[in-house]
């Protein structure tokens, strides 16, 4: 999943999925919500990180989101956005909150 995110971040003009124009907010929320699922499972299933898997998931997603935006700022025709980082982290918080219910 991380490679897919980085691949699309490296494209100068990424394609719209299913030819439907959607706001950036929804795309970021959806991709990082799914990414949070995989990161959460990875930490939960690792004995060393099992007890703090929720915190590790949030920290990892936050650092990855920041790194992704920095990476994107070096791509021609793309720019980085603090709003994107906030949406990415928010989607992770929503995921772990729902998972904790």
**What is the average per-residue confidence, as pLDDT, rounded to a whole number?**
88
Number of domains: 1
From the alpha-carbon coordinates, what is the Rg to the nearest angstrom? 14 Å
How many E strands?
A: 0
Low-confidence stretches: none
Helix content: 55-70%
Class by alpha and beta content: mainly alpha
Ends apart, CA distance between termini:
25 Å
Annotation field: number of helices: 4
Outline the biggest β-sheet: none
Series of secondary-structure elements, N-terminal to C-terminal: HHHH
Taken from the alpha-carbon principal axes, the silhouette is elongated
Give the DSSP E fraction (strand runs of 2 or more residues). under 5%
Q: What does this 3D model show about the protein?
A:
The two termini are 25 Å apart. This protein has 101 residues and is mainly alpha-helical. The protein is elongated, with a radius of gyration of 14 Å. The protein is built from 4 helices and no strands. It has one domain. It has helices spanning 2-10, 24-44, 53-73, 82-100. The protein is 69% helix and 0% strand. The model has no long low-confidence stretch (mean pLDDT 88).
How is the topology of this model organized?
Layout (H helix, E strand, L loop, with lengths): L1 H9 L13 H21 L8 H21 L8 H19 L1
Helix pairs in contact: 1-3, 2-3, 2-4, 3-4
Features:
mainly alpha; 101 residues; elongated; 69% helix
Put the structure in a nutshell.
This protein has 101 residues and is an all-alpha fold.
